[in-house]
Design a protein that fits this description.
Blueprint (H helix, E strand, L loop, with lengths): L3 E17 L8 E19 L4 E6 L2 E4 L2 H10 L3 E7 L9 H16 L6 H14 L6 H4 L5 E4 L8 E4 L5 E5 L5 H5 L2 H10 L8 H15 L4 H12 L4 E3 L5 E4 L4 H5 L6 E3 L7 E6 L1
Parallel strand pairs: 3-5
Antiparallel strand pairs: 1-2, 1-12, 2-5, 2-6, 3-4, 6-7, 8-10, 8-11, 9-10
Helix pairs in contact: 1-2, 1-3, 2-3, 6-7
Length: 280
């Protein structure tokens, strides 16, 4: 009998988006573009009498994850869950969606639930939307690539391409996603700023994202300083959505960002969530 299952899901950096409101969570989400990254969340799941979640980042542990707890309850299972990540939480790296996808992938195998990958993603997307922790990260992270989503939810048309060059990112701290997603004023600015086309490459993605960040009014003062330094060196860059950080690409990107904090070199992911192992 399997007593532990371990799975991984990539994260996702959103560059620009626009909320789409539907009649239910499945039809609610966003359109937009982003990059699925090779860093994400590893989730270890074991049966338990009651559900508990530990979130571990570089040795620091916090307790609880309402979206994960909700998703497991909806499946009718109880488990002890440990999610682990290297990237900062709440900084625009799509780790909430990654935690959900990794946990549900592991739970599906652990409890022999028979869910397809689409069905697991549907449950994760529902939890994200209801808890206002994201709109399109689950849809993007079903597979890899630089993604462009032209409809809401996990069944929307999504185009993907796989550039060989890396993306560089750094964080200046968390930005509560729910506070932006629940603001009607912010959503109106975001909708007006949305660039209505898909990116043609990684540098084009950075440029489209930067125009969106400027027009949406979401750029924080500390982020502004990093972006101006990138501008001065001719480095395409923008703000992580939604997070208090910056992503950039091309020659010089890592050097410029390193002046402001720890830099993460991120490859474009080639796949979505997957099972790592099961243990008796």
């Amino acid at each position: 009998m399997v007593r532990t299952a371990v799975a991984f899901s990539p994260g996702h950096i959103s560059g620009y988006f626009k909320r789409v409101e539907g009649g239910d969570p499945a039809a609610t989400g966003s359109v937009g573009a982003g990059v699925v990254i090779d860093e994400g969340v590893r989730s270890t799941v074991s049966p338990a009498r009651a559900t508990s979640v530990r979130v571990v980042r570089q040795g620091r542990v916090t307790a609880g994850s309402p979206p994960v707890e909700y998703a497991l309850e909806r499946l009718g299972v109880t488990a002890v869950v440990t999610t682990e990540c290297r990237l900062p939480i709440g900084a625009g790296f799509g780790l909430s969606a990654a935690a959900l996808l990794a946990t549900l992938t592991a739970a599906n195998h652990l409890f022999d639930l028979g869910l397809s990958a689409d069905e697991a993603a549907e449950r994760a997307h529902e939890a994200e939307v209801l808890h206002r922790s994201g709109l399109g990260d689950v849809a993007a992270s079903q597979a890899g690539g630089v993604v462009c989503r032209t409809g809401p939810g996990i069944h929307a048309d999504i185009t993907r391409f796989y550039p060989p060059e890396p993306l560089y990112a750094m964080s200046l701290g968390p930005l509560p996603t729910a506070s932006v997603l629940s603001s009607g004023e912010a959503m109106a600015r975001i909708a007006a700023a949305y660039p209505d086309r898909c990116p043609r490459g990684l540098a084009d993605f950075c440029r489209l994202s930067r125009g969106f960040a400027e027009k949406s009014g979401l750029i924080a003062p500390e982020v502004r300083g990093v972006l101006e330094a990138c501008d001065g060196s001719g480095v395409p860059a923008s703000m992580t959505m939604l997070g208090n950080g910056v992503f950039a690409c091309g020659p010089g990107a890592e050097r410029v960002l390193s002046r402001f904090g720890e830099v993460y070199r991120l490859e474009v992911a080639r796949r979505g969530a997957y099972l790592i192992e099961t243990r008796p």
